Recover the amino acids of this structure.
């Protein structure tokens, strides 16, 4: 199991991007959350198997139609036992 804290930069601060991340995280059975960060990036946490987290990071690099991802930065950290996946407002 793996946990990553992610910051996504670019044309990503929209409800569509967060909904995309949430839907894909649910599809991959990941736990965690996604929100708009105060600095214009999208911030997320994903917990799950190494393979599923890696797949989610690849999806974040592409984003939904209409998004333009410039960079995806992440740090690995200790598992915190996230439950479910939610969009934080």
């Amino acid at each position: 199991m793996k946990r990553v804290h992610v910051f996504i930069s670019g044309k990503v601060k929209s409800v569509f991007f967060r909904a995309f991340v949430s839907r894909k995280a649910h599809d991959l059975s990941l736990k965690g959350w996604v929100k708009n960060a105060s600095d214009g990036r999208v911030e997320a946490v994903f917990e799950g198997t190494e393979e599923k987290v890696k797949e989610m990071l690849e999806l974040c690099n592409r984003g939904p139609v209409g998004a333009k991802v410039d960079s995806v930065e992440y740090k690995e950290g200790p598992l915190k036992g996230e439950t479910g996946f939610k969009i934080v407002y």
Notes: The mean pLDDT is 96. The chain has one domain: 2-87. The first helix runs from residue 15 to 27.
